[in-house]
Specification:
- With 310 residues, the protein is of the alpha+beta class.
- It has 3 domains: 82 residues, Orthogonal Bundle (Arc Repressor Mutant, subunit A); 109 residues, Periplasmic binding protein-like II (D-Maltodextrin-Binding Protein, domain 2); 104 residues, Periplasmic binding protein-like II (D-Maltodextrin-Binding Protein, domain 2).
- A 5-stranded mixed beta sheet has the order 4-3-5-14-6, covered by helices on one side. The protein has a 3-stranded antiparallel beta sheet with strand order 12-7-13.
- Helix 1 crosses helix 2 and helix 2 crosses helix 3.
- It is elongated.
Length: 310
Amino acid sequence: MVRLEDLQLFVRTAALGSFSNAAREADLLPGQVSAAILRLERELDIRLFARSTRSLKLTAEGEQYLPYAEEVLSMIHEGRERLHGERHALQGMLRIAAPSDLGRNNLLTWLGTFRDQHPKLTLRLSLSDHVTDVFRDPVDVAIRYGSAEQASYVALALAENNRRVLVASPEYLKRRGSPASLDELVLHDCLPYVLAGRVYDRWSFPSNGVRRQVTVRGALLCDDAEIARRWAVEGRGIAYKSWLDVHDDVLSGRLHVLLPDQPGETAPLNLVCPHRRQFSPAVRYLHAHLRERVLPMSAAMREYANSLVE
């Protein structure tokens, strides 16, 4: 009879690509994971992985079996949550990945409040501008800008109308002036970000139904989006940021929105899970909690834009 623990280790080994990684995540020895996979293979009478000294990959049979294993685990999880999740206080661990800027400036407070409401729940927050792979990385949900790039992802909207905005501090604008058009951005100090070693210095804007790219220049580069925001507040250049990331700075006057008649690139914010069955009560409550706090910020973007027009 197939053991549930063996099935879980098979799914995580397939996602993480090695016995060692799966063992580390489960707090086991690699030999214990290997033994579990061998036990499962004997029970199924198939070979799930092709092993070598340098690599571990699924066989054709393993690839065929994997979605069924994931489905079984998802159904067991959903059944447990249906029986207990709604009747009892939220408990267990919820692992959340989020972008650095939003995480430090907003999520820290929001998640603290959420934890106060559910004291038996443990939250594990991972902050990074690296795009989390919710299938391979040890997280339950990811808070992510942009549309889900894979149809297999399931996304719950937090701020579907969010956009990026050009911002600079009053000190910078006093010293360098404000660009009168996108073309003049090349004359200014800009604050592009770095991701996976690549400098993202081509800023995109919707223009007459097409996407226009402007290549900007900057002498200050960082792979942490929060640092770009801080540099902008210090008057060191122009940043192109999500409205949610600079909302407080703009409303307080620390940053001004530039070229308000030029819409910025869309940056919808979503709560992402790999499968709908992973929307446990904890995830559903978290989504409602976050959306309740994000919606006023999105509304403030519209009000601010209208005030500039008037």
